[in-house]
Design goal:
Elements lengths: L6 E9 L2 E8 L5 E5 L5 E6 L8 E4 L9 E2 L3 E4 L5 E5 L5 E8 L1 H7 L8 H6 L6 H15 L5 H21 L12 H13 L6 H8 L3 H12 L3 H18 L4 H7 L5 H12 L3 H15 L1
Antiparallel strand pairs: 1-2, 2-9, 3-8, 4-7, 4-9, 5-6, 5-8
Helix pairs in contact: 3-4, 6-7, 9-10
Length: 290
Amino acid sequence: MGLETIFEVEAEIRVPIATAQLIQLHLHAPVESPMVERDTYWLDMCLASRPSNSRLCYRDRWMHHRFEQIGRVFLVPPDEDVQYRTEGGPSQAAILCHLQPEPLNKWFDGELQWTNRKIEAGLDIRNANIRGLLLRLAEETRHPGFGSAVLVELIAAQLAVELGRYFDRFGEIPPAGELAPWRLRLIDERLRDIPAAPTLEELALLCGLSVRQLTRRFRASQGCSIGQYIANSRIDHARRLLASGQSIKTIAHALDFASASGFCFAFRRATGMTPGEFRASNRAKGQRST
């Protein structure tokens, strides 16, 4: 079953350089499905937040067990063998733009070379211009009016330029000794999904490196030690939990601190204030803004 068989097209506009589709994805159960190879770019933007269990595998480029998380906006180049996987969730609205390759080639003197670095950069496109254009495309597809075809063609041409500019940034090979973006994403996912601090051995195994390689490459990539990064991530998580109103003891337990006093000490050392002071400061800011 191809991915096209599990979505419903609610509206569509076709122009010479692109096809815009407003779709509903029905993924109420776990799905693993190929995205049929095509001769157009598949540019997809979820109109709400995309479920965190949505992932892709480029089967001709990666090991078949490597599935990478996709963001709210992602792009798949033409003629790629891609497998989609999700654990399921509620129906999702999305704007899908099938973009012909010629507009991108026109602006960049020939066919773009899709290196692994560019492929990885297309998994989670956070460019505000591209997102804004896709939202405008979704609105025009949903409520077409006078000159819709002309307007959609203009938006598609702008998308081609913005995508070319975006991927052009990833043309250079990253400096030797840095961690690959997919390894950094794995570390971030582990820190986000499990509050307890990971060991270096756990992260090294996750990344397929030795502890020495991991620590050296992480510092080269991020400019700080992996220990500092983990500590900062836990403090950021603590800030969010404090804003939610949970008790300090509950938060300390959730973050795997041995005691509430140990959590308070670590939080004050990182932020300059106790958890209680931080919470009071947040409340005061909220009152001033109302």
